[in-house]
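Example record

The entry below shows one chain as it appears in the dataset: sequence first, then structure tokens.
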Amino acid sequence: MSDTPMQPVPGDDERLNLPATRGSALDTRSRGRDLALDWLEEPAKADPDEIDLMAYWRILRKRRGLVAACVAGCLLLALLLTMMTTPLYRATAVLQMEKQSQQIVQGGELTGPGYGWDPEFLATQVGLLKSQALAERVVDDMGIDQATLKGLRPPGWTQRVKALVSPGSRKPQEDGEEAAAEPDAAAPAQDEEAIRKIATGMVRGGLSVQPQPNTRLVSVSFVSTEPRFAANVANATADGFIASEIERRFGASSYAKKYLEEQLSIAKGKLEDNEKALVQFAQQESLVDTGDGRSLVGRNLTDLNTSLAGAQAKRIRAQSRWQQASGSALPQDVLAGSLVPTLRGQLADLRRRYQERLQVFKPDYPEMQQLKGQMDELERQITTEMGSARASLRAEYDAAVAEERMLEGQLVALRDETLDTDSRSIQYNILRREADTSRQLYDSLLQRYTQIAAASDVRPNNISIIDRAQVPGGPFKPNLLYNLAIGLLLGLMLGAALAILFEFMDDTLKTPEDIERQLKLPVLGIIPKLSAKQTIAQATADPRSAFSEAYRSVRTALQFSTENGVPRVLLVTSSGPGEGKSTSALALARNFAQLGKKVLLVEADLRNPSLSRTLQVARRDKGLSILLAGGGTLEASIAHQAVEGLDVLFAGPLPPNPVELLAGVHMRALLSSALRQYDQVIIDGPPVMGIADSPVLAHVGEATLLVVHSGVTRIRDAQASLKRLHTSRTRIVGALLTKYDTKVSGHGYRYEGSYDYGVDAPRLGQG
């Protein structure tokens, strides 16, 4: 080959298939999408209302560091708050409330307050336990003063911090006893009433009363910074409540006794007056009280009326029997008590015998005459008996009539006497009823007074202490495990919310689906992210690595990206620096060289060349910039690589005007000359954004491959890059997604794991 400087060759444009002769970008994208790999096929449209839980799970996995930081921060905060919070101790006493009906006097009558287990009774007892009066009683019984209140005052934040920093600086109180701190001399002394109000408020504020469901037990708890003080207040509250209940009932009994004594005295005097007036009036009117409220004459009249009514009934009954006997038949009771039924039976028997013998003998036969005589005798006896019975009924009727008439005469005589007596007994009866009323009231009051006197000596109590409050062994607040659990929950919620928020605020291209949706480009390959311990050189050197396998897939996809196969002049570029374009260009060049092709890799980033750093080649005084400036030859500028068929044209010295060099005729002449010697020319171009170098290279190249850094390349930058590339009328065959973290994304695209090379399988070229 000649060493003369390279000159433009006519017809190079045709050989290079310049953009003026290419199909539309839309057709290119359509063909590229059709030739994409099977795993890149777009899934069916999901329901927009359907929640993709796996998508959220991938977001959390991706930003697990943020979630872990939020959890750690919340746990630390919960721990600090727990350590800085004053410990609170709770002591609980259990009371039992049984049903009881204690009688009291109200309006002269004994009534009960209705101590039954019902909602109203329960609410009343709870209200009494929480009352101001009971709290004041507890304060007085325990003798809570200003020194006690000061000892119960929780330490400030400064003291707590000092206690955490130097635990021995503050001596803990033993057994939770109240602090016996000396009163501050500088603090003004408060009067006893103010201290009593403060103490009462403190007791009521720390007291809680909770009925136990489906029982007659009530829990009385008190919370304090000192354990022993908490137990003392709870027990004092229970004792004070029982004592106040007993005093209240004893006070009610005493009031009832006093009231009944007064009423008994009044009732006794009134009863004596009424009885004296009754006796005096009876003596004046000569009235005899029979004991049933009636006079003697009135009682005789009543008896006589009763006797007359009986005589009339007796007369009516006797008259009815006599009228029945006047006919053919006697009453059944009279007939049954006489000989008539017996005689009639004998007569019937003789008549039957007479008729039997009449069949044999004539009536004048002696035996027949004898039977006839006996029958006649029986008939005479029957007639005699019935006549006697009728006479007896007649006598009975006459006696009843006589008795009735006699009683009627006596009643008429006694009625006049009774009217006179009754007119004088009206006032007597009034006086007698007043005396009876007074006597009943007196007896009732006397009976109830006796009951109250007996009950007041017993003093029954329906409230008892089942469990007395014990000094708690440890605080119930703060609860470290509970606070840590809350902190963990809040940390997870906060971390998840921030992760989802940051994810939705992240406008970078992260997945192949993002590129397909936002850029409308087919994804020709996905390059996995290397681990921290693995370098690009190591991954490239291992042909079985996922990194190498991914670039082989890209090579295969490029073979089907156009109708004529792999573009002979391929520009590899990206939106910005550091997205992997140089690495991708080098990897693709090596892969095409491994297929037996002669490949030229051109380092066209004249502003910040990185290919030489990747290959660890010292900066050369020869290269692309020298060729474009019109000096040197292609053969003298290239660098042969260890991979057979691969040559590299480095950038050379940095020029002051890269755009002018790339847009000049020498660049087209260079590519025309390279295509005569090489099967494939791959250009490692500069970034698209910010400079005009890549659009110029895209114009002279045959096709462009856009490299996208997963999670780094922003959507608007990639879209702006595409817009600039389209202005150069280049053919964009697709996109390459680099540094894709499959573990974070959750997608199943990987080469390792499901299918791998056999360990013991012989290799090609091995014996």
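Notes for this example: The first strand starts at residue 89 and ends at 97. Residues 1-45, 101-116, 168-187, 748-767 have pLDDT under 50 and may be disordered.
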